[in-house]
Structures are given as structure tokens and as C-alpha cells.
Amino acid sequence: MPLGTLDRTPPPFFKQGPSALSKLMVCSALALFLMVADARFGLMQPLRAAVATAIYPLQWLALRPILAVRAAGGYVGSLHSAQTSEEAARQKLATLAQKATQVDALTAENERLRKLLELRERITSPGQVAEVLYDAADPYTRKVIIDKGLTQGIEPGSPVIDDAGVLGQVTRVHPLISEVTLVIDRDQAIPVLNTRTGARGVAYGDAVGLGGGGLELRFMAANADVQKDDLLTTSGVDGIYPPGLPVARVVSVERRADSAFARIACLPQAAVGSARHVMVLKPLTAQLPMRPDPAPVQPAKRGARK
Prior knowledge:
The structure is a single chain. The chain folds into two domains: 97 residues; 160 residues, Beta Barrel (Thrombin, subunit H). The protein is rod-shaped and about 180 Å long. The chain is of the alpha+beta class. Strands 1-2-5-4-3-12 form a six-stranded antiparallel β-barrel.
């Protein structure tokens, strides 16, 4: 068959309609028309609203995981920030509480120092202020260590007082520190005077009565005029303590028929368990004038010869 006689047109089964270029031109013109019509007359606004309403549930579902992740991150961040703020607030509160405690302690210490200085003005004996460093290591004695010693002129036997009364006596002196035996020590004794009656006595440290922090007025007759709340002061007869310093106050008087002496318990006036600043006085013996030398004995003259 000759080639010129062949039918070059596609069979009806494969007929494709307008060409692609025609479709492109028609679609472009339609799109341009729709854009101009929508811009000028808003023809697509109802359709756009309908489509947005139709797909809103899908958008809501799609955003849920993202919002959940954001909420979880925000919760973790807020929790961490809250914990950090709480810790900072606790530290600040602890600091403020410590400062408040220090202020209270300094105020109380300042008040005690003022009272000690006022007491120093009323006492004629020379003295110097010292600070209590620590308690003595011996558990069977009641002693404290102060920060003054031989270098500062501290002498053995010097009375030690605080703003309320007699605290004890210096029993051992080192170059830079000294040991003070408190009035409540069982081996310590101090002559006292009952300010109400004028009766003298001797108060001893009591390691048993009043929880180990008291004194006992010993060798007082069972019928002695001693009552509760009587104030005992130093008598000054021992040549160590100046007279008139508060020592203790009577808290109980026990008179027994089987004993010739009364059992009198006293509470020390000084802060024997919490004193911080004290005053060390010169013993009275150091203030007394020296005893004059005895006059030499003149040999008896022989009588003149007659």
C-alpha cells in the first residue's frame, strides 16, 4: 500500500479534545477573570468563607498536638521557675532570720555591756572588762576561761563580776588567758551578808541543788532569821571581794528537827551559765596599804653610875 494512501488522523478512540495550549489559555483567562472579579466585586468571598468553615475542624484537630506540646513546655518552665523562686525565698528568709538573731544577740550584749559599765562606775575598785572564751574542759568543775592574763595585769584571786552580781574568782592565771572558778563550783566559798538582817554567813557552791547551778548557805542555825527572797551580798571580810556586791537570793529554807543547821538553797544573781562579758576587779588585799614595819626594839639603857 502506498504511503500516501495511509490515514494519519488518530482513531476516534484516542481523540483528546482541545490541545494543551488551548486549555492553558482558557484556564489563564478564567483565572485572570476570577481574580479581577474577586478583587473588584468580592465574588469569591462567600465561597472562601464556606471553605474556611468546612475545614476549621480539621485545623482545630491539627493544632491540638502543637498546643499540647507548648502547654507542657510552659508547665515545666513555670514549675522550674517556681521551684527556683521558692529556693531563693527560703535562702533569703534564712538569711534574714540569721540577721534578726544576730541583731537580737547584739542588742542583748550591748545592754549587758551598758549595765556592766554602770556597775563599774559604782564600784571604787579598779577593774577591766574581759570576754568569756569557753568553759573549762573538766566536767567535774564549773570554770570558764577569759581572754585576759598576766600580760593585762590579772592577778590570782581577783573577783569576777557581771552586770548582775558576783560570777566567780580567778584561780589560775596564764600569760594571755585566765581561769575563773564560778561561785556555783563545789569547792568555791564566799562570805556573804544578808541585806535584810545584817547576818553574816558563808555561801558554798552546790553541785546538787537547783540542777547543779545554785549555792548553799551553810552552817546557819535552824532558828536563824533567813527567809525566802533574802538578798545575799558580799560582806568584804575576806579581803578579796568588795562589800555590797550581789551574790545570790534565797529560794528555799528547810529546817529539820534532826539537824542543828538549816538547809538554805540560793540562786546566784550572776548569769553563771551564759555570761559573755565580765569585769575582773583587783582584790581588796592589793588595795590595802602595806603594813608598817614593826619598830625596832630599843635595848634598855643601863642606869647611870652614882
